[in-house]
Amino acid sequence: MEATTEVGKLYVEVDQSVCQGHALCHRALPEIFLSHPQTGLSYTEDTPVPEGLEDKVIAAALNCPERAIRYWAD
């Protein structure tokens, strides 16, 4: 019998109190990291990360100079 591990969906959020608007995440993944038109701060929708973009989201989080991006599996 084979062992299987089910991985949950990946979620991501930007901490608005930490984000400084560098927009590196937005430039890397504009479909995930949106840019507020007035403040320039990045934000995300409250939906799971689409399949196939998980590695890019994690890379964006690791490249955030302010460490404002948090991700987790549910």
UniProtKB/TrEMBL annotation:
Alphabetized Gene3D superfamilies for the sequence: 3.30.70.20
One Gene Ontology term of the molecular function aspect: 3 iron, 4 sulfur cluster binding
Cofactor or coenzyme needed: [3Fe-4S] cluster
Keywords: 3Fe-4S, Electron transport, Iron, Iron-sulfur, Metal-binding, Transport
One Pfam family named in its UniProt record: Fer4_13
Record-linked InterPro entries: Fe-S_cluster_ET (IPR051269)
UniProt superkingdom: Bacteria
Protein name: Ferredoxin
Natural source organism: Mycolicibacterium elephantis DSM 44368
